[in-house]
Every structure is written in structure tokens, then in C-alpha cells.
Write a structure and sequence with these properties.
By secondary structure, the protein is an alpha+beta fold. Among the domains are: 2-95 and 133-164 and 800-805, Penicillin Amidohydrolase, domain 1, CATH 1.10.439.10; 561-593 and 599-686, Penicillin amidase (Acylase) alpha subunit, N-terminal domain, CATH 1.10.1400. The chain contains 27 helices and 29 strands. An eleven-stranded mixed β-sheet has the order 1-29-2-3-6-7-8-9-16-17-21, covered by helices on one side. The protein is globular and about 80 Å long.
């Protein structure tokens, strides 16, 4: 028995020692929040005060020192996030995460993101250059002089922090433009579909905006089949699918946003109110970091983004602004014909021309380095050089076709920092709009209001002009050797869509088509479905005057207008399943409100998912493939059911001719089987929020089962892809088999009061800190899920740190 007691005391002692070491580590890895800190790189004292929510107010004597202070707090609270942003922009993920990240690195190197950022940095001058340098100095001062222990991700993965470089900021700006500009994926989707379907059917599967006719193009299906693209290694269906899988997500359906601004004549305060909720990937920590910045003659508060030195979304003393994504067609893919005798040459309208080729070395954790030659044509980088297939590596560089990308965000004359700083300094709507003239990418729908009472909307960005003889219009990959497909200039900066002080008293955007049919310039055909916009307009018209609380209630709205076109089919669906009757009872009175505690939304989405698979699965093979499963095909489904289209409803794999009614009945039965297996026989206990979980992914520990509970954040939510309070639903299951997970939604909600900024409110989806033991790691999650807010401007100081120059 004595040895048992000794063993017990030994285990207890070891446990206490481990706890003591863990406590010591967390103390050393936590940032200094109070007292004084002496750092190199700052010219005068900077005061950093944090309130009860961890939101810092940074006060400095110069704009440069203000950006230095922002760099310090970003490094203190979000160092691992900065590290991942830097590695994404540089294509250096495999160095930390191993072979699983290699294909993404290959794609990012082939896209030449960091090389483009370096070219932009060479041309960056003036306040943009100084802001980027000062911000980098702030981050690096923390790394070199203040950090006592690495964040847990770095410690576990064995990653050593490196100095931040201004090029890292510009590369991250490109990656944010990438996230919001996915036209290239739709081009490849149409190309893939056209290799097996006629153009007419492709246009039905990827239909035009409601009420529009398909854009007139040449028969691109016949064109691509004539080129025999499916037989070439770099353009075969398998290669295209793998290329899409290797690329970081972009143009994801459901990534969008809402914004609206109400004039003082229609508010209870007599001054404008502005609301904004950008819909982006939900991550741990959130993409956004709240901060208040103050220097002589300048005060701004709002959402900053670790990696960028300015307030991206927010309010200053004179104006408030909010973004949604325009999603214009500013990415064109080009099929480049490679010289069979020389893989370093490509066909152009003037004959064969040399490609720009460079060798990249990708370091892979635990493995040998990978060498990769990436090339660029006159149109841009050859993204097919990502080399995601062995046969592409073996033959794609020597013969056949390659795929190049022309994209405005890769241009060298881009200055996102200078434009962002100018917008955040604007003193009126007119000044703000003037500042947007130099905005390039991503094109955004911006609503703005000033304290004088003016409201406005402008969609700034660099939009290409395509030649009249261009018969592909940028909707599918163009022929790189034919000059008629080259861009012919830009839409003038003052001719992009805009509107000011309308008589109706409000302006709103939700990724819908933002111009009238007679607008003279082509922006895109791939607008988001207008359901969120229509609901916002319903709510804005519902009362004569709106309060701040009214706008907050609008951001919480979970009524999906997209349910109405499909509900008649669901209600007429027949099934002999034992749960058919109780399921139909749950649907009685269902008006599309996607409440988390109701069964009806779950039944609706299970049925619509099964119906989409039943109708389109034989033509698309697998809707669980990421490139396909990331789309809902809701507009295509509505079109098929509206036409009662026998061709689509027929299962081509059977000799019988199935009808849409038969597919509808089958989908209802399969939905009930699925829900019974997962949630039991008591339909009254089914809940949408039980299945529809918001998942804020942590990179990379969401993929490590033992660590995911510590780092990842989850909560059941209502809403769906088409509600104002959006929470995206996709067709494919996630890696855990969850069918209705939500990883894209309101990454930020804000309501700005132009009459009394002290009443402005905001909330993002995680917490200010990236350290899992911090009180501010997940303290925003609950309030975010309940659509609650914290003050944007007010916040009594709980901590005060004075940074002095060395």
C-alpha cells in the first residue's frame, strides 16, 4: 500500500508542477496591458487604453506613431493570426502545417501573390509608405523587445516568428480581394459543364439574374470541344477540379454583405443612421479587431484587420461608412496555347512569345523542399502551373494549353492603404467619394453618411472594358492568342454606379444588381440572388422613421424570402414515410422564418438539399465536391421547377422518364429518412439550430480532434443563405459529416449614429484576443449569436499602457 501512496503523491506533484508551468507560460505569453513599455521605432509616447471588452483606444501625436501603436496591439492580441496571414500571402503554409498545405502553396506561388505585392511596394510612396513602415515597426517592436513567450500555436507547431514586412500587408490586401472576387471559379465551372453539356443547359444551371436573359455569347461549348480541351492534361475535367480544390476559397456563394443608410428625414434622431454587416468566413479569432485611433485632428473607431494599418469599416468624427461586395467581373481566364517545341513560349496575336518563368522553392515541414517553375504570359500568371496533378507536372508544361489569369488586384499601380487612409480621414460624403477614386480591388458597394445629413452610395473599383467583338464576354475562359479578348481599358472612375440623397430617404445594397438595365457599362452577370435586398427594402418601407434599435432588429431578421418559390412543391410532396404527416404538421404556417428553435426550417433545407441532388446529381456527378457543393444551385432549382422541366428532372441513369413530381416525392422521403436517422422519430423535437451550427474555424487546430474544443468556436444559429441575418448553407457536408454547418456569416455587425456617435454599436464574432485562455478569446460569441452589441466609441479604461520611445 505504501508504494500506491507514493505513486499517488508523485502523480499529484507532477500534476501540480504541470499546472504551475502552464500558469507560468500563460503569464509570459499574455501581453503587457498596464504600466510603461520602452520600444524602438516610435518617436513620441503612445497611450494604449483597453476597455472591459478588450477594445483599445490608441492615442498618439503623429499618424505614423498611431500606426505603430496599431501594429503593437495587433501583435499583442493576434500574433498567430498575423503569422497565418503572412504565410498565406507568401505561399508558405506547408512550412508550418506540412504536406496537407502543399497544394495551396503551389497555387499561391503560381498566382504570384507576394511577387505582385512586392511590385506594388516598389511604387508605394508618401503616407501609404510611411503608414506601412510604421505599422511594421510596431509589430516588430513587440516581437523583438516585448514578447516573452510565443503563442500556443507557434509553440506546438515549432514555428518561430519572423519580422513583419510592408509587403506582407500588401499581400494580405490582395488575399482579401481574392476572397471577395471569385469570377474565375464561375468561368471554370462553365468550362467544365460545357465539356459535357450544351451551352443552353449550362445557362440553365448557372442562370442569369432574375428577370434577365442569358448574356449573348458564341457557342462556347462547341468552341471548347473543338479545341479538345478535355484531352489535354492541364484542361481536362479532372485537372480543373483539382485546380479549384487547391485554390484558397474565393467567390464563395453566401460571401457578401448587407449595408443600408437612412437619411435623417426618416430616422427618430433627425440624423442619418448607417448599418453594415459584412458576410465573410467565420474564424477563430475573427477577421476583425476593434480599435479606436486618436491623433491631433483625427479620430476614428471601427473594425481594423490584423495585417492592415487603417480602420477598414467604421466612423470618424464626420462620416460613417460600410461595405458590401460588388463581385464584378474583374478576373478573366485565358487559355494560352503552349509552343509544342518550347514550353517557355506561348502563342500571341503576333506569333510566339517568351513566357516569364521563375523557379519557386516551397519548404515542406518534415519533407524535402519542392521546386516549382511558375510562368506568366502577357495576361498574367499561369495558375495551371500550380501543378496539382502528376500528369500536369509531366506534360502540361510542354504541350497543349495553360490557364492564365488577368486580375486587377495583381496590378502594380495599386494603393489600397493610401485609399483606405484617405477614406478614414474624409470630412463629408463628397470627400469620401473623392477618396474612393483610387480604389482598385475588391470593388465594393459603399454606403456613406455625414453629420451634415447627406447620404450616398458609390461602387468604386477598377472594372475592365471588353471590346465589342469579344463574343465570350468574360463569362468563360477566353482565347489568349486572339486580340479581341484582350481588355480595352477601364470604366472611368466617376462612371461606376452611385446615388446620393434619394427622395425615398434610404440607400441599401446586399450584393444584388446595383444598376438599372440601361447602365452603359458591363460589370458582371453573376450577381447574388436579390432575396436579402428585397427583405431589407420591405423592412425599410415598413415604417416612416427608424431608430437605431430598428436597424439592429433588421440585422437580426431571419425571414427568408427564398423559401416562398419552393414551398408549394414541398407542401404537395407525397410520401408513405411514417413521419410524413407530423413533418407536414410542422410546416403549417411556415413563412420562411428560419428560427433556430423550429423544426420547419430543418425540414425545408433537408428536402431542398435532397431535391437539388435528385435533379442535378446525374449531370453534375457529385454535389459533395467542394467546387460544386459550395454552391446552392437555388436559382437553377427554381427555374427547373417553374418550367416543370422534364429534361432536368429525368434521371439519365435509368430507362424510365422521371417527372419533377416524382423527384419531389423522392426528395421528401429521403429528407425524412435522413432527419429520422440523425434526430429521432419525435419531429416536434427537431430544431434547425441543432443541425445548423455556426463553426468559427481555427487554423490549423480545428483539424486536430484533441485541440479543436480549445480553439474552435461553435454555436447553434438560425437564418440561412438568403436571410438578412445570413448564415450560409451549402450542399456538401463538412469534414465531420455535418450537413448544415455554417462557416460564413456576419463577421461583423455595426450600426452607426451620425447624430450621436456615442450611440454607435458594433460586434464581431469571437473576441479581441487570439489567446485561448484570455477572457476576450470568445466573449463576443454569445452576444454575436444573440445579435447584441458593444459601444463603438465609449468604453471606460480598464487597462492603460504607455509606450515610450527608446
Amino acid at each position: 500500500m505504501r508504494w500506491i501512496r507514493r505513486a499517488g503523491w508523485t502523480v499529484l506533484a507532477l500534476a501540480l508542477l504541470a499546472a504551475l508551468l502552464l500558469w507560468g507560460y500563460t503569464r509570459r505569453a499574455s501581453p503587457q496591458l498596464d504600466g510603461e513599455m520602452v520600444l524602438e521605432g516610435v518617436s513620441a509616447p503612445v497611450r494604449i487604453e483597453r476597455d472591459a471588452h478588450g477594445i483599445p483606444t490608441i492615442r498618439a501625436q503623429t499618424p505614423s506613431d498611431l500606426m505603430f501603436g496599431l501594429g503593437v496591439v495587433h501583435a499583442q492580441d493576434r500574433l498567430w493570426q498575423l503569422e497565418t496571414h503572412r504565410r498565406i500571402g507568401a505561399g508558405r503554409l506547408a512550412e508550418a502545417f506540412g504536406e496537407g498545405a502543399l497544394e495551396t502553396d503551389r497555387f499561391l506561388r503560381a498566382l504570384r501573390v507576394r511577387r505582385a505585392a512586392a511590385a506594388q511596394w516598389e511604387r508605394t510612396q508618401g503616407e501609404s509608405r510611411e503608414a506601412l513602415l510604421a505599422y511594421a515597426r510596431g509589430i516588430n517592436a513587440h516581437l523583438r523587445q516585448q514578447m516573452r513567450a510565443r503563442p500556443p500555436e507557434m509553440l506546438i507547431l515549432g514555428v518561430q516568428p519572423e519580422d513583419w514586412d510592408p509587403i506582407d500587408s500588401l499581400a494580405w490586401a490582395i488575399m482579401m480581394a481574392w476572397d471577395l472576387g471569385g469570377n474565375w471559379q464561375t468561368e471554370i465551372l462553365r468550362l467544365r459543364l460545357s465539356l459535357k453539356l450544351p451551352s443552353q443547359r449550362v445557362d440553365e444551371l448557372v442562370p442569369p439574374y432574375p428577370g434577365d436573359k442569358p448574356i449573348v455569347t458564341t457557342d462556347y461549348a462547341a468552341l471548347f470541344r473543338g479545341l479538345k480541351l478535355e484531352s489535354h492534361a492541364g484542361t481536362s475535367p479532372a485537372a480543373l477540379a483539382r485546380l479549384l480544390a487547391a485554390a484558397p476559397p474565393s467567390g464563395v456563394e453566401g460571401v457578401g454583405s448587407n449595408n443600408w443608410v437612412v437619411a435623417g428625414s426618416h430616422t427618430t434622431t433627425g440624423r442619418p443612421l448607417l448599418a453594415n454587416d459584412p458576410h465573410l468566413k467565420l474564424t477563430t479569432p475573427a477577421l476583425w479587431y476593434f480599435a479606436r485611433l486618436e491623433a491631433p485632428g483625427f479620430r476614428a473607431a471601427g473594425a481594423t484587420m490584423p495585417g492592415l494599418p487603417f480602420v477598414v469599416l467604421g466612423q470618424n468624427e464626420h462620416v460613417a461608412w460600410g461595405f458590401t461586395n460588388t463581385a464584378p467581373d474583374v478576373q478573366d481566364l485565358y487559355l494560352e496555347r503552349i509552343d509544342p517545341a518550347d514550353p517557355k513560349r506561348v502563342q500571341t496575336p503576333d506569333g510566339w512569345a517568351a513566357l516569364d518563368a521563375v523557379e519557386e522553392t516551397i519548404k515542406v515541414k518534415g519533407q524535402a523542399d519542392v521546386k516549382l517553375v511558375v510562368r506568366a504570359s502577357r495576361h498574367g500568371p499561369l495558375i495551371s502551373d500550380a501543378g496539382t496533378l502528376a500528369d500536369v507536372l509531366g506534360t502540361g508544361g510542354r504541350s497543349g494549353y495553360a490557364i492564365a489569369m488577368r486580375w486587377t488586384a495583381l496590378d502594380a499601380d495599386v494603393d489600397p492603404i493610401g485609399t483606405g487612409l484617405a477614406m478614414s480621414r474624409a470630412r463629408s460624403v463628397d470627400e469620401f467619394v473623392a477618396a474612393t477614386r483610387t480604389w482598385v480591388a475588391p470593388m465594393q458597394n459603399i454606403v456613406v453618411a455625414d453629420r451634415a445629413g447627406r447620404i450616398g452610395f458609390v461602387a468604386p473599383g477598377r472594372v475592365p472594358v471588353r471590346r465589342p467583338e469579344n463574343d465570350l464576354k468574360g463569362v468563360v475562359p477566353s482565347l489568349g492568342w486572339d486580340a479581341r479578348y484582350d481588355w480595352a481599358g477601364w470604366v472611368p472612375a466617376d462612371r461606376t454606379p452611385r446615388e446620393f440623397d434619394p427622395a425615398r430617404g434610404w440607400l441599401a445594397t446586399a450584393n444584388q444588381r446595383i444598376h438599372e438595365p440601361d447602365y452603359p457599362h458591363y460589370l458582371t452577370v453573376d450577381w447574388a440572388l436579390p432575396y436579402r435586398q428585397q427583405r431589407i427594402e420591405q423592412l425599410l418601407r415598413a415604417r416612416a422613421k427608424h431608430s437605431r434599435e430598428d436597424l439592429q432588429a433588421m440585422q437580426a431578421d431571419r425571414k427568408s424570402l427564398a423559401a416562398a418559390p419552393l414551398m408549394p412543391w414541398l407542401l404537395r410532396a407525397a410520401s408513405d414515410h411514417e413521419l410524413a404527416a407530423p413533418a407536414k404538421a410542422q410546416l403549417e404556417g411556415f413563412d420562411g422564418t428560419m428560427a433556430a428553435d423550429r423544426a420547419a426550417p430543418l425540414i425545408f433545407w433537408a428536402w431542398s438539399r435532397q431535391l437539388t441532388q435528385a435533379i442535378f446529381g446525374d449531370e453534375l456527378a457529385s454535389l459533395s465536391e467542394p467546387a460544386l457543393g459550395g454552391r446552392s444551385f437555388r436559382d437553377a432549382l427554381e427555374g427547373v421547377l417553374e418550367r416543370n422541366d422534364a429534361w432536368w428532372c429525368d434521371d439519365k441513369a435509368t430507362p424510365e422518364a422521371e417527372t419533377c413530381a416524382e423527384r419531389n416525392d423522392l426528395a421528401f422521403t429521403r429528407a425524412l429518412e435522413e432527419l429520422q436517422a440523425r434526430y429521432g422519430k419525435d419531429v416536434s423535437r427537431w430544431q434547425w439550430g441543432q443541425a445548423h451550427q455556426m463553426r468559427a474555424e481555427h487554423r490549423p487546430f480545428s483539424r486536430v480532434k484533441a485541440l479543436a474544443p480549445l480553439f474552435e468556436q461553435r454555436v447553434g444559429v438560425g437564418g440561412d443563405t438568403y436571410t438578412v441575418n445570413v448564415s450560409r448553407v451549402v450542399l456538401r457536408p463538412d469534414r465531420n459529416g455535418d450537413l448544415y454547418f455554417n462557416d460564413h456569416g456576419p463577421s461583423l455587425r455595426a450600426v452607426y449614429d451620425l447624430g450621436d456617435p456615442a450611440q454607435s454599436r458594433a460586434m464581431h464574432s469571437s473576441g479581441q484576443s487570439g489567446l485561448p485562455w484570455s477572457d476576450h478569446f470568445r466573449d463576443f460569441l454569445g452576444p454575436w449569436s444573440r445579435v447584441e452589441y458593444v459601444p463603438m466609441w465609449q468604453g471606460a479604461a480598464q487597462h492603460s499602457l504607455l509606450v515610450r520611445p527608446r
